[in-house]
Specification:
Structural class: mainly alpha
CATH class of the largest domain: Mainly Alpha
Number of helices: 11
Distance between the termini: 142 Å
Largest sheet: none
Oligomer: single chain
Number of strands: 0
Helix content: 55-70%
Mean pLDDT: 83
Order of helices and strands: HHHHHHHHHHH
Length: 313
Amino acid sequence: MNNTSNSTEEFETVIEPKKVKKKHDKKLSVTQIDYLPKPLRGDALKLAKSVLQDMAVQEQEVHAVNEVKNALEAAVYEAREKLEGESLIKVTTGEQREEVSKLCTDIDDWVYEGSVRKSDYDERLDRLQALLGPMDERIAELEAREDLPSTVDEAVASMKEMEATIRKDMPWVNASKIEKAQEKLAEFMTWWAQRQDKQKELPLSEVPAFTKDQVQDKLSTVQKEWEKLKKIKKPKESKKDVSPTKAEQEKTMAPGSETLPDTVEATETVLTEVKKAKADAIEQEDYDKAQDLKKKQELLAKHLASLKEKAEL
């Protein structure tokens, strides 16, 4: 027999040692070398920032000065054009135009030397506008007054037509309300006549006796009064008086009634609601509803008094 086949095989285990990595630290020395311009630090950095901020403010001021300078030069140019216009001549005197012309010349001479302060330009621009502003307003009012009399006449005629219609076809409108509206119209007509007479006496170079807006506001107030009367609706035809008799009222207010509350508290609550509803109906000019609520209010008041009397017994 083969000895080799019967022998046990033996294996040898080889264990390799664990590799250990070593770290090697080496300190390096770094030297900073700055070249011009060197970075700023500390107080020098703060100073540089402050200088930059001042420069930014100065640049903004320069832009603002240029803008207002252009506006001032444009205003002078426009003023000289207006001085030659027929409209401005109508509403100014020679002295007023001379004052504007002299200011324009002074501004031209001053702008030649100029200023670095925006406030200097603003001050001269304000002075020029203060002279031209009232002149422009008088021109606008002069043009507006041309059509104003016809506008007023048409409005007054319309209101008188409404008055005639109301008096003829709307007898349910309270006469006192018509008289009140008529009084306001008469007051406006008196004011309008006085303003027109005063305006005729005034030279066009002075502040006008009235403006278009003033007249339209007063006229609109009177028109609204008449329009409000015109919208009042005709009340429904009153039905035959079917007021309950005393016996019927007592029956209605009897304990256990289904139409009226049984307690004082509930009755007071319903009564408050009816009063409020009646006030709303009057405000909306629904007089039929207000009349019905008035009757209900009276009935509830009597019922409340009856309940209180019974509670005291």
